[in-house]
């Protein structure tokens, strides 16, 4: 592998995004092996993406979180469920900004920021 093919800062950004999303999955007690494989699939896909657009490295955490959220919705259901709204239908948090640095999980219903991606474990349930 030469460095042009795998620039170290892009790999570091991918590993950081992976770690943040895994932390949120662990916080929600959904880090089963098949779910972790969804994270790995996203990281593989985003590795190609960030090589095409290296300036997008700071967006990786939010993109991997959204990829995993979408894959979980197709296979298992909504994730992560909103810990803020105590009544009504259970609903998932959303990542904002959709394409930007410093992504956070937000509840669109209550219009509140819940936690940074990777920090769901710090939110009281």
Outline the low-pLDDT stretches. none
How many separate helices? 3
Straight-line N-to-C gap: 45 Å
Largest β-sheet summary: 3 strands, antiparallel
Biggest β-sheet: strands ordered side by side in the sheet: 1-2-3
Explain this structure to me?
The chain is mostly helical and 125 residues long. The protein is built from 3 helices and 3 strands; from the N terminus they run αααβββ. It has helices at 8-27, 33-52, 60-75; strands at 94-96, 104-107, 112-116. Helix 2 crosses helix 3 (60-75). The chain is globular and about 45 Å long. The model has no long low-confidence stretch (mean pLDDT 91).
Provide a quick synopsis of the model.
The protein has 125 residues and is mainly α. Helices cover 45% and strands 10% of the residues.
Features:
125 residues; mainly alpha; 3-stranded antiparallel β-sheet; 3 helices; globular
Detail the topology: elements first, then pairings.
Elements (H helix, E strand, L loop, with lengths): L7 H20 L5 H20 L7 H16 L18 E3 L7 E4 L4 E5 L9
Antiparallel strand pairs: 1-2, 2-3
Helix pairs in contact: 1-2, 1-3, 2-3
């Amino acid at each position: 592998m030469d460095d042009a093919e795998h620039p170290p800062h892009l790999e570091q950004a991918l590993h950081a995004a992976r770690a943040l999303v895994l932390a949120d999955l662990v916080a929600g007690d959904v880090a089963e092996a098949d779910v972790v494989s969804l994270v790995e699939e996203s990281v593989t896909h985003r590795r190609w993406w960030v090589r095409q657009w290296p300036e997008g490295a700071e967006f990786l955490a939010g993109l991997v979180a959204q990829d995993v959220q979408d894959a979980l919705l197709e296979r298992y259901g909504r994730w992560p469920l909103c810990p803020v709204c105590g009544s009504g239908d259970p609903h998932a948090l959303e990542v904002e900004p959709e394409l930007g640095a410093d992504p956070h999980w937000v509840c669109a219903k209550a219009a509140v920021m819940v936690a940074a991606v990777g920090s769901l474990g710090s939110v009281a349930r």
